[in-house]
Amino acid sequence: MWLRAGLRVLWCARDEVQIGTDARWAIRLSGLTAGEVGLLLALDGGGPAPGLAKRAGSLGIRPERLHALVGELDRAQLTTPATELDRGRLLPPQLGPDAGTWTRLLADGRGSTLLAARHPRVVGLVGAGRLGLTAAVTLAAAGVGCVLVEDDLPVTHADLGAGGYTARDVGSPRRVAAARALRDIAPDVTTTAPPRTRPDVMVLVEHGAADALRSRVLMSAGVVHLSIVVRDADVVVGPLVRPGSSPCLRCLDLHRTDADRRWPALAAQLVGGVRSTAPHEETVLAAIAGALAAGQVLAQLDGTAPHTLGASLEIALPEAVPRLRQWSTHPDCGCTGLPRAGGGPPSRGG
Asked: What is the mean pLDDT of the chain?
């Protein structure tokens, strides 16, 4: 038997223990003998339990009773297949914490399998300031095997801090400095790909408003994409667009135009106008929004129901607490007639 990695086994009373600390799956076993309590406490932290039957015998626990205890843990989905250990050994060591957490979270306990499935995935990213680099580095650290950064702007002192640029990067193109930062975090990550490589997800970090033309190109190619817009003192993460099955960025523009007929004129200036100052990305907003964006991309890659599908997360200072805003397909858009793009396996918590 294998208890899921990282699960705590805690003493509650003379005849009772608790396994797990997350209310979604933690259980308490009561009416236990002293030997049974000792056996279960020895499993604290999860992982392999070699010689479990022999140890149970030495504690006076009969085989049928051991079978019943293991059955309770199985029914509570607190055990994991032994094959996961072998798969986990093939992962880079830095992915161990992620694999352990997902082993506890997924219904089938196959966290290492999920992490391994991220390696062949390709994520593209346009706009590698503080926020974009935070998202890219998080994705690479979480096991995404190929992260392609598009941004030829030079790194400035305003880009340092959140994300991973350092003083030595100032003056270098962001895409070059970002590739260095990604390899520092995840040596196995690929930062280049053959021409016309189709990303599994494209991340668009823009300022002021989303570029509808850029989104339209991705829609026509059937590429899933996540919009991120940095505004005066907030950031909007989402929606994540699955062409043909969820609201697109043009839908959002149409909804905004319904509410404000001046929006098209404003959007045109925000997207294509000449700026008098460089785009800004405040430290806390960049860190929070970048991490949230990476989480939404991983949810799409893993198939665990991204919250930004048909919605956006708005993070505003000073609170910097995300607020979910729902969006619907606009009846005048027609985007749902496009080919669909899809997801993957369900999570334990979903």
From this structure: 90
Topology given in CATH for the domain delimited by 119-337? Rossmann fold (3.40.50)
Q: Where are the domains of the chain?
A: 2-75, 83-115, 119-337
CA atoms of 47 and 206, how far apart (whole Å): 44
Residue type, position 164, single letter: G
Cβ(330)–Cβ(250) below 8 Å = yes
Give 16's strand partners.
13
pLDDT tens readout for residues 272-329? 765 655 678 999 999 999 999 999 999 999 998 899 999 999 999 999 999 999 999 9
DSSP assignment of 19-56: E-SSTTT-EEE-S--HHHHHHHHTTTT-EE-TTHHHHH
Three-state DSSP state, 292:
helix
Give CA–CA dist 74/199, Å, rounded: 38
DSSP codes, 230-258: E-SSEEEEEEEE-TTTS--HHHHHHHHHH
Tell me the per-residue pLDDT of 138-173, one tens digit each, with 9 for 90 and over: 999 999 999 999 999 999 999 998 889 999 999 999
List Cβ neighbours of 50 (8 Å cut-off, separation of 6 or more). Answer: none
